Amino acid sequence: MRLRRSDLRGVLSAARYAASRVALLATVGATIAVAVAVRPVQAQGGLSTEGALVLLVPVGARTVAAGQTSVTAEAGSESLWGNPAGIARMTTREVALYYSKTLVANGSALGIVYPAGKAGVLGLGAQLHDYGAQELTDDVGNVVGQLLTRDVLAMLTYAATLGPSMRAGVTYKLIQRRSDCTGPCAPSIDYVVSTSGLDAGFQWQGQRADSVTAGLGVRQLGLKLQVNDDAQSDPLPTRLHAGIGARVPRVSAALPGTELRWAVELVNRTSLDDPAVRLGAELGLQRQLFLRAGYASGTGDTTGPAIGLGFVRGALSIDFARVFGGLSSDAGQPPTYLSLRISW
Predict the structure, then answer these.
(1) Which range of residues forms the domain containing residue 168?
(2) Segment 329-339 mean pLDDT
């Protein structure tokens, strides 16, 4: 029996497709396995012992308003900063701009998602966290320059479906901390340092629209951030995420045109000694107006209760969120998040 060229091309295409899925599954599984394996050697001591804490800052008003419950969410390009598996089923391209303001810093980010058909879905992300300018003075108090401290991130994501129920994704991150001086500065305060990290995650959902979605992921697994010497190098804030979420069908049946979703998520260090709980809910009206509320326990400037609104009109989506906990809220400046997304 002779094999036609078209048949051979079909076989090779199927083989490449299967190989890409196996490679993705192996990468995500290995990443999570490594995260669990490093658990015994993780130092305890809280945030003060970790570097690149900007990686713990949430991105996207939709995510923040829902209590940062992102491990089960399919939140468009916001999933680049959450569970990368969340973009695996996207069929439309998306470009999004994200802005945040807290007492500590102003944040801005760009997210791009490009579905590549059977090859999977690609995502690109860039983020700038600006801590503002600090005046530098000489011995007599004269201003001689400024010190600008910023965190910069660049990300590349790949995600794909693994059968009808499973989704997986992996993100590579390049993290850079910059301390730029415009005047005479000592080398210890004028520096640029960088490191790399990985995020990986799975999502599983049954065939029904109201089936429970389960998510599992690891974030910020990577090399230490070294500022000047080994003594000043700090591990990345690696976190394990696990959660479930679902749609409530009774709400849709009682109020046609509405959709209520809920999510619960657990977050912990790899040492499993500091668990935090996240709760979130979203009520959609005619798939155009969205009301969101959530709560994130733990420490940090974005923990506590949160609320938000979302509006969708055609290809344009606008989301707003505000958090009522943490240092910024205590100082009378609740963290505020604004997102603008365009899809086609």
Answers:
(1) 5-343
(2) 86
CA atoms within 13 A on the CB side of 113: 33
Q: Write out the two tokens for 28.
A: 């995500």
Look up the CATH number of the domain holding residue 251.
Answer: 2.40.160.40
Q: Give the total number of structural domains in the chain.
A: 1
pLDDT tier for residue 35 given thresholds of 50, 70 and 90: low
Which candidate, 169, 168, 192, places its Cα nearest to that of 179?
192
Give the model's pLDDT for residue 20.
55
75 vs 125: CA distance, rounded Å:
14
Position 14 scores a pLDDT of 53
Which tens digit of pLDDT belongs to each residue from 78-124?
A: 999 999 999 999 999 999 999 999 888 899 999 999 999 989 999 99
